[in-house]
Amino acid sequence: MAILQKHVKNSSSEFVKSTTESTVFTEAGPLQKEEADDPYWSRSETQLWTVVLLLGTCLLYCARVAAPICAVSMASEFQWGKKESGIVLGSFFWGYCFTQVLGGYVSDRVGGEKVIVMAAVGWGSLLALTPMIAHFSSVPLVSVTLSRFLMGLLQGVHFPSLASLFSQKVRQHERAFISSTVGTGSQIGTLLIGGAGSVLMDWYSWEFVFYVAGLLAVSWAYCIWKHLLKGPIISLETVGVSLVKSKNARIPWKRLFSKPPVWAVIFAHLCTSSTFYTLLSWLPTFFKDSFPEAKGWVFNVVPWLVAIPSSVLGGYLSDHLISLGFETAVVRKLMQFFAMGASSVFTLLLCGTRTFPLAIAFVSATMGFQTFTHSGVSVNVQDLAPSCAGSLYGVMNTGGALSGVFFVYFSGYVIDTTGSWASVFALMSLVNVVGLVIFLVFAEAERVDIDVSKPKCESIQI
What we know:
By secondary structure, the protein is mainly alpha-helical. It has helices at 33-37, 43-78, 82-98, 100-110, 112-136, 140-155, 158-169, 175-183, 185-203, 206-229, 236-248, 253-256, 260-290, 296-323, 328-349, 356-370, 377-384, 389-418, 421-442, and strands at residues 3-8, 23-26, 29-32, 456-461. The strands form two sheets. A two-stranded antiparallel ribbon has the order 1-4. A two-stranded antiparallel sheet has the order 2-3. Helix 2 runs parallel beside helix 8 (175-183), helix 4 packs parallel to helix 7 and helix 5 (112-136) packs antiparallel against helix 7 (158-169). The longest helix has 36 residues, at 43-78.
């Protein structure tokens, strides 16, 4: 069978496919036919992995929120003040910032699912051991702070690995729904650990919150390894292939950072993360200050219950519009308009709210619309750079975490200085609007990780 080589330009294909026997050539070098024919999951595989990763993200947040839930009990037992408790809780985010890029980089080369499972074993084991670390240490404050920092390091790889995995295994017109569905694990996990953790502390002690959440995470990782990965997570063959990929497919950082769409998606994510972390951190205090007679479970639960279906709805709507023929870039911008524009309207309405039901309604609408970012910015990074989506998402999420921590502290300063919650809500809305305008003007959905102007070699059969 004769094979002719021809030069073609193809800007939309993520892989160069061959219709002949053994080997084809891609941007990163030769691939075997089985790998190149269809790199994406089948429908049944997509459904299975969506459920599995949703559960994994849920357990991730159960582990992350375990310490804040137990903070009062731990502070009482170890005689910590608010300053010491803040050091323990804040140490997680500093660790979380350091492994974002590394997690994405490794996932792009060995597979996001493998990195997620290995990390889950680490942070799940560490969580289960935290009570023993605290009790057997001569200085519990130092040991628990270090434990939280290490947990941040291990959990920092999760979302960049998801971005890498979806860019490699999920078709573009299905990514928004899957990303948004898996993303609801954060809300579900927060709700579950809030309810179950309270019960465990009432029936047993705060230690059992750590034991249960940690052992569940390790069990989840074991089941994935046993039934889905089926074999060694890292083998010599995997290491060899990843080294070849690293050599032949270096991340084009200079090229990426010279593109306005990349900066647009990063800046929009910074703004979204800043406002989300601020709401997450200060809303309970806002309700206690403004409505002291209100039931805590209402404002701690209702907004999250609204956010879960909103996230799934945003993903379904996004993929449905793309399947109808709407341009991907237009759909991503529309989703981000809801996430940053519509949510800002309801955030501003909080400024003049005088009744508790209205405040709950506005906060719930704000949190619900913010979840549309799972179908906007979070997926757009996979459109722009599918070959290194994990690494780029890591850069963007590192900046988002750092900006979020800074904005939380700055908001506290504004509240102490002015005594006005309206100032904080107005500032949040302004940040969102600026980020939205930048995204609407510069965002695109075409690949920027390769030079599509250069012809590349594709094999055809005659």
